[in-house]
Specification:
5 strands, globular
């Protein structure tokens, strides 16, 4: 087997997973703001170190966590543009719970 083994479902008492939100397996879709591309990569690596699996295709990201979380997301780096398809994502940039506008601003 290649790589490290990831747990199927995390024990909430395991220190590596303490504090991670618990999910019910429902996919969530987000637009996430980051000040720099390096900060976004560090955030992804932080989650990978806690048992999350990541899939990256271009600017699209998918993550599945040992706590039942399933995420599809993209990053908004600084004030930069977001992909056209990001209008279907929930905007976490402005703290909104609604879909994004065409340039990533909350509607």
């Amino acid at each position: 087997m290649k790589g490290r083994t990831r747990p199927q479902l995390a024990d909430p008492d395991d220190a590596r997973f303490r504090g991670l939100p618990r999910g019910d397996g429902t996919a969530r879709r987000f637009l996430v703001w980051s000040p720099t591309a390096e900060a976004a990569l560090r955030a992804e690596r932080f989650l990978e170190g806690r048992g999350y699996g990541f899939h990256r295709i271009g600017s699209a990201r998918a993550a599945h966590g040992p706590n039942g979380n399933l995420w599809a997301f993209t990053w908004r780096i600084g004030d930069g543009p977001v992909p056209a398809w990001a209008v279907r994502l929930t905007d976490l940039t402005a703290g909104s719970t609604g879909p994004c506008g065409p340039v990533g601003t909350a509607r």
